[in-house]
Design a protein that fits this description.
single chain; 178 residues; mainly beta; 8-stranded antiparallel barrel; 1 helix
Length: 178
């Protein structure tokens, strides 16, 4: 009986000794978008979860001090974007590239859809689709052409199109607007 009580006492006190050694902040931003077209209404739900984790470190670890100052330490930020499609399926996006872009003085909006991105003109007409490939690039498709696209280090969308008549590759740069 004595060992059971002693074991229970040690178990209960050891949980209070082991404290949390990390500051964790979770923030979720939910955006609901309804798209109306000739096929009806489609509702997309985009959830952006940002998690910040910071290890707690003490400046002077002297055993005689009760209250010790915290030392600034690195904050690790991880952002995850989850898209829920109208059919109920979900997908996770590493980096959300939704933004406004300029090409030849015209403004375009790149926005997430159920399988990738849609490119919309200023009057909200769909001008093309972007679909992700396994090589971290995208296939761009519209009525006139199919091209390979990728985002450069500055966030600009680069499209590479092959011309079979001249056996050359042409480049188009959609410049991100900030």
């Amino acid at each position: 009986m004595k060992t059971i009580l002693l074991g229970l006492f040690i178990l209960l006190t050891s949980n209070s000794i082991i404290g949390q050694n990390k500051n964790v902040k979770d923030e979720t931003k939910t955006t609901t978008t309804t798209v109306t077209d000739s096929k009806g209404d489609k509702t997309y739900v985009k959830k952006e979860n940002t998690r910040e984790v910071q290890n707690i470190e003490l400046q002077n670890q002297e055993p005689k001090n009760i209250n010790m100052d915290l030392k600034d330490s690195e904050v690790i930020v991880k952002t995850t974007t989850t898209i829920t499609n109208p059919d109920g399926s979900t997908r996770t996006v590493d980096t959300d590239r939704s933004s406004y872009y300029l090409l030849d003085g015209k403004k375009f909006q790149v926005s997430l859809d159920s399988n990738g991105y849609r490119i919309l003109s200023e009057d909200n007409k769909e001008t093309g689709l972007l679909r992700k490939t396994s090589t971290n690039s995208f296939i761009y498709r519209n009525k006139q052409k199919t091209a390979v696209g990728y985002f450069d280090t500055e966030g600009n969308l680069i499209l590479e199109t092959y011309n079979p008549k001249t056996d050359t590759i042409s480049y188009e740069k959609y410049t991100v607007t900030k």
